[in-house]
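Please decode residue identities from the backbone states below.
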């Protein structure tokens, strides 16, 4: 199987980076010149959402192009199930050199890990430990460029964080900057490019596909002094608040309970602002890192033949709704993420902003479409019988693979993104949370509080029940957001994003919005129906039953 025509891929994921942390998305964001440069060299998606605002489900969904209710990865404790069709399985089948540098929190089954030619993991506490599910100790394919002892020293504060509040802590430190995860992973990535990148005119060129997964700006909140100095606390623009948001009875129990754990109105405003500034400084650190990767692709002459995408698994409150961190709710702070696609030499337009709705599960089919591995956009017109019976996306790459074929690609529920490809725009995007588990009651929560649990300690004490409770679903358009749990009597949520972009007032109970809710419920029903197959059953490739044609010595149909 030839691979010469295939482009390289660098899939960059930041952890817990909300769209509004970037000035290019919001007035409360900080400048991110490297991501702005990438947007100028590609397409920026203004309204991209995560399919799930929790690390593992979001990452599994990105890698498979499927929603969590289809993959079965619906909690942080249920990682990529064995046998899934995902990006690395496809890339390996196509002959790519594959690599994962940074946070994993996705692949754990040996048959998936074996698909990685290079694996250099690092997470929030530094190098992997054996006592945390989703981190695999050891390396494969490359040694660390930055010495381990430098990495360990640079993560010493994160593993013993100071706490300025019951619900958060932060630090500004002076460790060797090359040891911080964002810098060390960037250095490792440049070494990966040097080792596995080949000039376009090399007849033996083998493309590479790399998942570069930065653990920042996820908590613990720690930034090198260099970046903290770039984002002083007094420069932070605080998001709007509503003083009675959690006391007037208009929001669901889950939202109020989360605020009871993570609310910062009881904290010293100086510490709150300092913590928010550290998160933004970590964001700027990631931005510089992306710039270094782009520069290195230019310097090595590989940019022309490399697709680069950037996004995040989910967001962070960082001051919105009077909270820091995250939890199982659907405010834009947690569900709206930055998303950029860049490949100027491959026909991706430059400097375009797409205002339609998008989802991070759309990135895998977009990459496959741009790489001309498969065409997801072609649809049969009913005139040609063979086309009518085509079960899924049309495979363009010359192969006889059992992994990559029209039938297997039907499993991908995302679709190529508009503007970057010729696919049409979408008017709605969807997200979900929960596995149908029992809800956390106020009585149980107050009992834990009486035992002395509060703040982040209470958050972790109730983590598993909150991850699993209910089956919450969100549909978002440019104008409205609707959140409901069909199996719960908790309040629905509806936000008018034109008049209330910070989602401070739930208007689901306003009779004037009944038509809007009806439309949003219909969108959710269409989505649930379209994605209900856990594993799509094989579709027929002939009009009727095959018969053996003795005169021709073959199986065929009556039409020949």
């Amino acid at each position: 199987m030839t691979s010469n025509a295939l482009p390289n891929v660098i899939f960059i994921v930041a952890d817990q980076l909300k769209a509004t942390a970037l000035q290019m998305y919001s007035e409360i964001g900080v400048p991110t010149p490297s991501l702005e440069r990438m947007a100028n060299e590609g397409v920026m998606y203004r309204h991209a959402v995560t399919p799930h605002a929790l690390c593992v489900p979001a990452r599994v969904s990105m890698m498979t192009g499927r929603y969590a209710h289809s993959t079965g990865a619906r909690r942080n404790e249920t990682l990529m199930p064995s046998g899934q069709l995902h990006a690395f399985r496809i890339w390996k089948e196509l002959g790519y050199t594959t690599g994962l540098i940074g946070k994993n929190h996705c692949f754990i089954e040996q048959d998936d890990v074996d698909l990685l030619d290079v694996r250099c993991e690092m997470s929030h506490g530094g190098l992997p430990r054996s006592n945390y599910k989703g981190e695999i100790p050891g390396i494969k394919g490359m040694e660390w460029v930055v010495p381990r002892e430098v990495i360990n020293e640079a993560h010493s504060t994160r593993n013993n964080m100071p706490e300025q509040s019951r619900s958060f802590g932060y630090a500004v430190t002076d460790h060797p900057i090359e040891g911080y995860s964002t810098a060390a992973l960037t250095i490792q990535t440049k070494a990966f490019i040097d080792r596995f990148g080949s000039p376009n005119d090399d007849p033996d060129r083998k493309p590479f596909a790399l998942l570069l997964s930065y653990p920042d700006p996820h908590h613990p909140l720690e930034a090198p002094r260099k970046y903290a100095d770039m984002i002083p606390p007094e420069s932070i623009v605080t998001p709007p608040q509503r003083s009675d948001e959690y006391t007037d009875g208009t929001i669901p129990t889950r939202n109020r309970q989360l605020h009871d754990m993570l609310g910062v109105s009881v904290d010293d405003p100086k510490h709150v602002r300092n913590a928010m500034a550290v998160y933004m400084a970590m964001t700027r650190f990631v931005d510089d890192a992306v710039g270094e990767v782009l520069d290195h692709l230019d310097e090595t002459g590989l940019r022309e033949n490399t697709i680069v995408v950037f996004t995040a698994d989910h967001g962070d409150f960082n001051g919105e709704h009077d909270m820091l961190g995250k939890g199982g709710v659907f405010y834009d702070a947690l569900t709206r993420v930055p998303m950029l696609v860049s490949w100027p030499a491959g026909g991706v337009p430059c400097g375009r902003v797409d205002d339609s709705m998008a989802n991070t599960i759309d990135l895998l089919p977009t990459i496959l479409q741009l790489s001309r591995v498969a065409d997801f956009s072609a649809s049969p017109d009913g005139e040609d019988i063979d086309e009518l019976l085509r079960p899924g996306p049309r495979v363009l790459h010359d192969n006889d693979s059992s992994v990559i074929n029209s039938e297997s690609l039907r499993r991908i529920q995302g679709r190529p993104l508009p503007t970057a490809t010729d696919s049409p725009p979408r008017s709605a995007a969807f997200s979900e949370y929960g596995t149908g588990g029992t809800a956390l009651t106020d009585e149980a929560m107050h009992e834990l509080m009486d035992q002395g649990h509060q703040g982040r300690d209470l958050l972790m004490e109730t983590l598993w029940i909150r991850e699993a409770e209910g089956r919450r679903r969100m549909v978002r358009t440019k104008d409205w957001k609707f959140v409901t749990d069909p199996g719960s009597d908790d309040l629905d949520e509806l936000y008018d994003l034109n008049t209330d972009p910070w989602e401070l007032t739930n208007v689901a109970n306003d009779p004037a919005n009944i038509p809007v809710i009806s439309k949003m419920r219909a969108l959710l029903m269409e989505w649930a129906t379209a994605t209900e197959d856990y594993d799509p059953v094989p579709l027929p490739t002939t009009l009727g039953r095959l018969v053996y044609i003795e005169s021709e010595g073959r199986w065929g149909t009556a039409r020949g």
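Observation: The two ends are 31 Å apart (CA to CA).
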